[in-house]
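Friendly challenge for the regulars: who can give me the structure tokens for this chain first? No prize, just bragging rights.
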Amino acid sequence: MSATILFWAGNSIAGRAMVGVVPPMALVFWRWVLALAIVTAVAWRQVRDDRAELVRRWRTVLALAATGVASFGALLYVGLQRTTALNSLVVQAAIPPLIMLFAWLGLRERTGRWQIAGMVLSLLGVLVVLSRGRPWDLLHLGLNGGDAVILVGVVLYAVYSLILRRRPAVHPMSLLWATFAAAVVLLAPFYVAELAAGARMALTLPALLGVGYVAVFPSFLAYLFFNRGVELVGSARAAQYLHLQPVFGAVLAVLLLGEAFHLFHAAGLVLIGAGIVVAARGEKAA
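First reply, four minutes later:
Bragging rights claimed.
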């Protein structure tokens, strides 16, 4: 699970490092094309066996691909054109409290006062980072465009996590293959539009390494490790590892990209961490 979160944190680092090297639509399109090729090579038997169920549940598969695979990746890479990897990672820390919020609002899941308090604290921490420690700027729409784009992707990923609870009853690798394949189809028109606008990926070593990294590590291996981790420790314990992402990412962003760690980043992480502790107290009390 720790390796999974490290790979996912590295996705934002790679996305930021590829700015000016690989256009965002090219990066997300070829990421999923290569990941799909890897999954096809290792899981074609499971896909063959589960084909009927995947076809029957095609609407759910399409919704999963649209929210959590195609849109989230595309919006993350587009947003990273205009913001730092550090900011993107702290914004992504809003995913767990947003899942709780949507489950409470949409699925009527029981949520205690401690969980609500923790959710509010975590979201407040994200707002502190979004506003660069000046929350009053949000009243005047003083929000960085890149952060706003990534925030939309985070909301969609939280929706994806809820849809995942109603996933088809198929082998996990079959579901990965189906969602990756659908994402490639959904992303193709946007990649073509990017090419038509004149954006091209240069076939240089840094570009190829960047695409290879996001295809293998945060895509194929991370999903494979996450599925296995859930089997070994359970979904509740596995979800706790998600909170390591901004921590791993902050270290990588400072060491590899030379990004500055500001006081508002620290304040945001403290608030998010406090929210996690408060919500966990509520779970124990329940």
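The two ends are 26 Å apart (CA to CA). The chain has 13 helices and no strands. Your move, everyone else.
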